[in-house]
Amino acid sequence: MIDQRSLAFGRVIAAKLCENPGLISLAMNNIARWQSTASPGVVATLEEWREILRGPQDCVIEVLTRGDERAVRLRQSNPFAGALTNQERNDILRAFESDDSSAT
User: 95: domain range?
Assistant: First the structure.
């Protein structure tokens, strides 16, 4: 369920990235800020993200929207914090709350 929710966030972020490539700067700034307090394992993931963000936008979008193990792992440390509006974020969270309540 968490992986599906992070994929939903990734898809919305990917759509916004297509409209606003400047979101790459937001992600890079988040990585720079987080690296000073991140654990060694997370630092390695942030470095992996940094390399992806330096590449073609299509590669960034693939990581945000694919379902393979690497993409799932990377989305656990998604550097696009702040890219979604509160409304976009809440809409996704509510959609998954509905799924959670129907599963019980």
Answer: 2-103
